[in-house]
Write a structure and sequence with these properties.
By secondary structure, the protein is of the alpha+beta class. It contains 6 helices and 11 strands. It has a 5-stranded mixed β-sheet with strand order 6-8-7-10-11, sandwiched between helices. 28% of the residues are buried.
Length: 234
C-alpha cells in the first residue's frame, strides 16, 4: 500500500537504529517508550489521555530495514546538494530516485525487490531519499505519495515518475527496461528541472555556483544565466 503524504501524521517504529528525525539512534533488545502529554484521542481502539503512557517495544539490534541488503549502486542521499551533484555526475547512466519513509509499510515491503533490481542492473544508479530527513526538498520536488520513483537519463533529464508497490512492480520493471542504458551520449546530464533548481537555491538548499557552474556575485544577489547560456535569474 502506498502512503499518502496529504494526511496528518502517522507513527511507526520499524527500528531504533534509524538516522531519520524523530527516531532514537540506539538499539537495544528491549526498550520502553515514554509518551507524555498526549491529548485525548483514539489509538488502535484505546483512548489516550494526558496521563503518562508506557509502551513496551522489542527493538532489534540489527540494521534498519532501509539499510539492509543495499547494493554498491544504491546510494543514500543526505542533502539536496548531494542529489543535484549525483544526477549531474551520472553522465548517460540511468538514475532512479527512490523516495521512501521509515514508517511507510509499502516502502518496507518493496525494499528487498529494489535491492534485487539494483543488483541485476549494475549500470543503473539507485538514489535513496528518506522523506522524513529531507521533507523540505521533497516538498519542492512535489513528491505526492510514497513509495515514489523518478527516472533520469542523461541529457533528457527526467523521463518518467510514478508510484508503485510490490503488487504493481511491473510498472517499475517496464520503465527500467525502457530507459536502461543502451549506448553512450556525449551530452552532459541535465538532472533536475531548472525551476526545481531555482526553487531549491532560493531557500538555501543548494549552491547555485556548483549547481549551475558559473560565478556567483555575492550571497545577497545571486543571478543565474539561462541554461542555453544559463538560467536568467532567481
Amino acid at each position: 500500500m502506498a502512503c499518502s503524504l496529504n494526511t496528518g501524521f502517522s507513527v511507526s517504529v520499524p527500528c531504533f537504529n534509524s538516522r531519520a528525525k524523530g527516531y532514537s539512534r540506539h538499539c537495544s533488545s528491549n526498550a520502553t517508550l515514554q509518551l507524555k502529554d498526549l491529548t485525548s484521542r483514539e489509538f488502535q481502539g484505546k483512548p489516550l489521555d494526558h496521563r503518562q503512557e508506557q509502551v513496551s517495544v522489542c527493538v532489534g539490534s540489527g540494521q534498519a530495514w532501509w539499510e539492509k541488503t543495499l547494493k554498491p549502486n544504491m546510494v543514500e542521499i543526505n542533502s539536496a546538494q548531494q542529489l543535484v551533484d549525483s544526477l549531474l555526475k551520472a553522465g548517460d547512466r540511468l538514475v532512479i530516485i527512490d523516495f521512501y519513509s521509515p514508517g511507510c509499510g509499502g516502502c518496507k515491503t518493496l525494499h528487498p525487490k529494489m535491492c534485487q533490481l539494483a543488483e541485476s542492473n549494475p549500470n543503473a544508479i539507485f538514489l535513496k531519499v528518506n522523506y522524513e530527513e529531507l521533507k523540505t526538498m521533497c516538498s519542492v520536488l512535489h513528491i505526492p505519495v510514497l513509495p515514489f520513483f523518478r527516472f533520469y537519463r542523461g541529457a533528457q533529464g527526467k523521463v518518467c515518475s510514478f508510484s508503485c508497490t510490490n503488487a504493481t512492480i511491473k510498472k517499475f520493471k517496464d520503465a527500467l527496461s525502457r530507459y536502461r542504458n543502451d549506448g553512450c551520449s556525449l551530452s552532459p546530464a541535465k538532472g533536475l528541472d531548472e525551476s526545481e533548481l531555482l526553487a531549491l537555491a532560493s531557500i538555501g538548499q543548494i549552491s547555485i555556483k556548483s549547481s549551475f557552474g558559473y560565478p556567483v556575485k555575492d550571497k545577497q544577489e545571486e543571478t543565474v544565466p539561462n541554461r542555453s547560456t544559463y538560467v536568467e535569474h532567481l
